[in-house]
Structure formats: C-alpha cells, structure tokens
Amino acid sequence: MKKFGFLVLLFVFGLVFPGYSHAAVDTKIILDGKEIVQPSDAKAEIINSKVMVPIRVISESLGYGVEWKQSTSTVTISKDNTAMQMIVGQKTATVNGSNVNLDAPPLVKNGTTLVPLRFIGEQMGLKVGWNNTTKTVTLVTQNSGSGNGTTTPPNSGNNGGSTNEEGLVLVNGISFSDNRFFIATSGETKPNVFTMTGPDRIVIDLPNTAFADSFSEGQALDSNQNGQLVVSGYPDVSKIRYSLYSNSPSTVRFVIDLSSAKGYDVQNDSGLIMVDLNKQGATPTPPVGDNGKKVVVIDAGHGDHDPGAIGVTGKREKDFNLAMALKVEALLKKESKIDVVLTRSDDTFLALSERVKIAEKVNADIFISIHANSGPAAANGVETFYTRSTSKELATIMHKYLLQSSGLKDRGVKTASLHVTRETTMPAVLLEGGFLSNKSDEAALFTESFQNSVAKGIVAGIKEYLGIK
Ligand SMILES: [Zn+2]
C-alpha cells in the first residue's frame, strides 16, 4: 500500500499538476475571508487528486470540539447536536450514528489528521472551493453572507438551473466510458457541437459556463484553465482537451481528438451532456429501454485514482468492483427483457453525482452499486445498503442472493445515507461483497469462481425483483 501511495503521489504531482514541485507546497485556507493558521508541517494538500485539509484547525475555527483517540485512530468532532467520527484509513465516517462514505480515507501527517475537503463542505454545511492556481482552499459558512465561494453545494443542481453569482453554469466534472463522453454541469446549458478536420475532432462549446472550483479536484486544470483527459482503450479517441475558451462570453470548450472522422449523437438534459460516439453511420442507436425493456444500471464503485479499499495483500477494491460489473453486464446482455448500462466499464473515475446523473438520464428502473468493504481485520461478510424506503424491497431481494451466492457471513440489510442510493430516484442499493481488510474474504473475492457465482446471484436478484422469468 505504501508503494502504491508513493506511485500515485508521483503521478499526481508530476503529471496531473505539473506546476507542483516536490518541495513543500504552501497552501492557504481562507475561512469567511480570513486565513486560518495551519500546522506548518501538515498543510492542506492534494493527495490522490483529492484536496485534503487539516481537520483540527478548521473544526476549532468553526467552534467544534475535536477529540483524538490514539488507541482506535478515531477523530471525533462535535458541536451542538452533531457528532462526527472518522477513523484514519477508513472511508466510512459516521455522522450522528449514520454511515457516510468519504471521498478518501483520513490520513495522519506529522501528527495532524487530514480529511477530504468535500466532507467538510457536506457535513459542516460550508461552501468549499479549491483554487489550483493560488493553491487556496476557500470555506464560506452559509450564514456569513460573504459568499465568495463559487462551488455549488454538492446536492444542488439535481433539477438543473443552478448558477454562480455571475450567472454562469458551472462545469463540475467529466468522464469517458463506453465511448461516451459525459459532462456534468450545475445547470442547463445549450452545447454547440461541431466537427473539424485536419486532424479530425469533435468540438463542444458550452456557452455561458465556467469551470467549478471543484472541477480541479477531479481533473487537472493548469493556471491558464487548460487541461486534458487521457483516454486509453478506445481506438477512435486519443484524448479529450478542455479549456476556458473565451472569457467574454465565458465559454468552456471540449475537444475530442479522433483517429478518424466519426459520427456522434448528443443528448442534453438535467445538467448532464452526453456525446455518444457509439453511433454507427447514419443509423442512430436505439435509446435504452426501448420496447418495454427494463433498464438496469450497474455501478462499479471507485476507479482510476480512487482505488477504494485496499486489501490486506494490496488488492484494490476498484478492480473487484469493475470485474464484478463486467461479469454482471455479460450475463444481463443475454436477457432479452433487460437493457444494462454501466456507469463505468474500465478504470476511469466518475464523481458520485455523475453516476447518479447517468442513472437518471437513462431512466433506470433499478440502480445497483457494487463495492467491497474495509474495516477491522476481524470484520467479514456481506451487507446491502439502501437509503430511501422505496429501495427496501430491492435491497431485501438483492441481499438474499448476495448472501447465498457469496457464501460469506450475513451482516444484514442496512440503511445509510450514501450519495448514490440517496440522490437517485429509482430503487437503488449498494452491495458490499465482502471485506478486503479480512484475509479470507479478500482471498475469496478475487477468485473467478466467487465472482462468477456472485454475478449470477446479482442477476437472479435483479430478475426476481423485476418479475422477469
Ligand atoms: Zn467502495
């Protein structure tokens, strides 16, 4: 794990943020316009593409009590009726007793605990932002009225229509999978899409837009607001470039560099733009869910720079999740009454909100997110999470099959406020297929026989729930 972390750091500092040197980076944290004094040897920094911030100084500046328990590596932050607990190295935190998934596990640096900036924003009700040019974290309390943060709150934008103070729609994130390019925005925008030749490329201009501060949490953006997404495994596409193309009117431009001219289809609604390169010639591919088919979205958790849990022997959760999703997909493709859509089909990264948007966009009938767990070495077994009561029946059925097909210990069906099961509107569950932190679970999870059995179980659960014989 050490070695992996080091390689990732080299990658992040050397390639994704070429402006970084290996010398200590002097970052700043500004809370309501005032700089917070940070521990000199554990300042805010980008680790694995996530902005991590020292929790103690921020919490104390906001009037929270902070307690550190060495024996369990637990940080407890409390104020009024709110208590949050985070454990170093674990991606699940608790907020007033409910589980909350973190973008990245808290870590200790020179005696200071660093936690993901996004968590601070979501759980402390702050507007958060990261300016990659000035290496500055901005935090704005909601009742401070100073309002100089431009990041939209994580849960806004579901219905489109949210803009920053200048009236610009913000580009929150991008992803490329299944030969489809997705752009997530904070609201509606009318993309102008056209092709150019010599070399062949597709240009997507988004009028009246700017990059959200949080965009650079997921993608590299240099000081001139340029960057690129390296695409591998798709012969038609070499890379996708992006830039703030114009300042007046503010326009974000994406360019898909092609190996040869290619047809495409553009769909745009609810803050998600999809440029689909799967279109062959002049015949559009039929939309998913045609002819009364049920649409099943399978979501392989984590991806790319976000490995998820790391197993006792160093195996990565993202690889298990993807292997499972691909096996489930292969089985579902044989079902004539089901259309299957994967949120990712390779080792790419998507924000949680983008996974939700994909499910909403294709009008999924059900959403199933596949993960593996991490915890104390003794913890083992499978569990199934849901958030909304309309997902309970799906959770119960899926768990029954997950349990049977895995042969692992039963940890039960549980409720938790997880982004993908909370923000989706169709029945949605998150399956935890065993603990990578447990030696025997980890060994089982990476065998073909286990994966094939659980994939069959997941498909059987889906068919029972959808009433497909
Ligand atoms: Zn996970």
Task: Describe the structure in your own words.
This protein has 469 residues and is of the alpha+beta class. The chain has three domains: 28-141, Copper Amine Oxidase, Chain A, domain 1; 169-284, Immunoglobulin-like (Sandwich); 290-466, Zn-dependent exopeptidases (Aminopeptidase). The chain is built from ten helices and 29 strands. A six-stranded mixed sheet has the order 25-24-26-29-27-28, sandwiched between helices. 46% of the residues are buried. Mean pLDDT is 82; it is low at 1-24, 144-161 and 281-285. The structure holds zinc ion (ZN).
Percentage of residues assigned to helices: 10-25%
Q: How many independent structural domains?
A: 3
Helix tally equals 10
- Class per helix and strand makeup: alpha+beta
Stretches with pLDDT under 50, minimum 5 residues: 1-24, 144-161, 281-285
CATH superfamily membership of the largest domain: Zn-dependent exopeptidases
Number of strands: 29
Instruction: Give the distinct bound molecules.
Output: zinc ion
Radius of gyration: 22 Å
In CATH, the topology of the largest domain is named Aminopeptidase
Mean pLDDT over the residues: 82
Task: Give a nutshell description of this structure.
This protein is 23% helix and 35% strand. With 469 residues, it is α+β, with helices and mostly antiparallel strands.
